[in-house]
Amino acid sequence: MDFSAVFSNIHLFLEGLTLTLELLLLSLFFGFILAVPLALIASNNIFILTRVAKAYIYFVRGTPLLVQLFLVYYGFAQFDWNDKQNPLWTEFFSQAYWCAMFTFSLNTAGYTAEIFRGAIIRTPKGEIEAGRACGMSAFTLYQRIILPNAFRRAIPAYGNETIFMLHGTPLASIITVEELFGVTNIIRSRYFIDLEPLLFATVIYMLITFSIVGLFYVTERKFLRHLRVNSR
Amino acid sequence: MIEYIPLILEGMLLNIKLLLLSLVVATLCGIFAAQFRLSKSRIFQNISFAYSTLIRGIPSLVFIFLFYYGIQEILNRLGDRYGWDYIDFNAFTAGILALGVTYGAYMAETFRGALMAVPKGQIEAGHAYGMTSLTVFRRITLPAMIPHALSGYSNIFLVLAKDTALVSIIGLREMTSLGNSIGNSIQMPFLVLSIVAILFLAITAVSDLFFKSIEARVNRRGQ
Questions:
Q1: Pairwise CA distance, residues A97 & A100, whole Å
Q2: Which ranges in A63-95 belong to alpha helices (H)?
Q3: pLDDT score for A166
Q4: What's the pLDDT band for B222 if we cut at 50, 70, 90?
Q5: Cβ–Cβ contacts within 10 Å for residue A61, how many?
Q6: Pairwise CB contact (< 8 Å): A64 & B205
Q7: Which of A54, A80, A180, B118 has the largest count of CB atoms under 10 Å?
Q8: What are the C-alpha distances in Å from B20 to residues A98, B17, B90, B187?
Q9: Cα–Cα distance for residue pair A160/B144, rounded to 1 Å
Q10: Which parts of chain A have pLDDT scores under 50?
Q11: With contact defined as beta carbons under 8 Å apart, do A202 and B66 qualify?
């Protein structure tokens, strides 16, 4: 067991780790912003929009992340993009990092929207009736009652989704983004050694996963305190 | 591009084979891990807890690589030291085992909850009749466990169905890698990959219908 290849290149691994966390956090952020309106549309009955939202969520949840990634990275190159002069192509879709960020954001938006939709639907009818009895408009009802409680209910499932997103970031290395797993593969092919770099990457991913689990445990304790069984 | 459709369907067949075989491995791992977790021995409990927690902390792709390339390298090094012949680790087997072990960890949690929901009295009655442990499991525990495990099991199944795409990275010619090669060669990657995506949706939709029908039958029996 010779870890010298890993430890002499620790700076590369740190850069890769930074890229992984960047990809994870930014995708989660953009996905969250997209997911809230998507969930609101999908949990109501608005004309055609609801069908579109539900179809989008069905597609994103029914296809593998890898296929979605390839669709964007390899697939978008099929189109003309104004003879590849369009800035949307030159600045964005021709680069692997932004393709990965785009795909991960859309993916997590779909899953998160489904989580929020489930949480919104599970709002107790009594709370909505009480709100209406107080004369709240729909907007105030959403702002004061439905959304805050839906977000609380969604915390455990959202924690799971964060972990799944973290487990999805290695896929970016397949389209040449040099995040942690990409660096691992580079070291593997440079030194012709497989076991040690992979073990190292495994340990790092485990540490990040357990940190996220701990973070969400603390968050659940704080925001779901009203549901805890107290042995007083 | 129509002439490539049979090729893509062959790839889909490989996907389905991978799915069903890793499902068997995962179910077995899950049941054993769940039984270990609920046993009286501390050692078995800890083994099961470590298995479930550690495996669920690793991304599937990293674990598949670790399993395939790592074990191949261990075999090579041991072969160097002891002078064995070159042992080859088949990518298909590696894919099935890696996916099975990974999703077995998730199933262990589902089965643990389901096993705990089986009334102890029924199991004790089985032992009182003189049934062996295996018979008790087959005739009493398993049928009682299925309704509780079904929704978790179907969720894990659907995630596994999509993760079979990952084995394309270790070189198996399943739908995703075929879609990529075909798309690149006829320069219409978006079209071909969209077809691959729709085929995955088909697998998901059929599995969904299958599980809904099983759920209906299982729930009806309780009446």
A1: 5
A2: 65-73, 81-84, 87
A3: 95
A4: low
A5: 17
A6: no
A7: A180
A8: 35, 5, 18, 33
A9: 28
A10: none
A11: yes
Chain A residues in contact with chain B using a Cβ-Cβ cutoff of 8 Å: 58-59, 62-68, 70-71, 74-79, 166-171, 174, 181, 188, 193-195, 198-199, 201-202, 205-206, 209-210
* Residue B6: Cβ within 10 Å count: 9
Which of helix, strand or coil describes residue A79? coil
Burial label for B35, CB within 10 Å (0-12, 13-18, 19+), is middle
Q: A193-213 pLDDT, tens per residue?
A: 889 999 999 999 999 999 999
Distances (CA, A) of B138 to A217, B10, B171: 37, 36, 39
- Residues from chain A contacting residue B165 (CB–CB below 8 Å): 64, 66-67
| SS3 labels along A133-147 | HCCCCHHHHHHHHHH
Distances (CA, A) of A39 to A64, A142, A147, A165, B11: 21, 12, 11, 19, 35
> pTM to 2 decimals?
0.90
Residue appearing with tokens 């466990």: B145
Residue-level pLDDT at A53: 93
For tokens 């357990």, what's the residue? A210
Burial of A210 (0-12, 13-18, 19+ CB in 10 A): middle
DSSP chain B: -GGGHHHHHHHHHHHHHHHHHHHHHHHHHHHHHHHHHTSS-HHHHHHHHHHHHHHHTS-HHHHHHIIIIIHHHHHHHHHHHHTPPPPP--HHHHHHHHHHHHHHHHHHHHHHHHHHTS-HHHHHHHHHTT--HHHHIIIIIHHHHHHHHHHHHHHHHHHHHHHGGGGGGGT---HHHHHHHHHHHTT-HHHHHHHHHHHHHHHHHHHHHHHHHHHHHHHHHT-
**Could you tell me if A135 and A103 are in contact, meaning their C-beta atoms sit under 8 angstroms apart?**
no
Chain B residues 161-190 within an 8 A CB cutoff of chain A: 162-166, 168-169, 176, 179-180, 183-184, 187-190
CA angle A197, A199, A200 (to 5 degrees): 65
Provide the token pair at B223.
Answer: 């009446």
Tens of pLDDT, residues B88-146: 778 899 999 999 999 999 999 999 999 988 898 999 999 999 989 889 989 999 888 99
Q: What is the pLDDT of residues B54-67, one digit of tens each?
A: 999 999 999 999 99
Single-letter residue type at A133: A
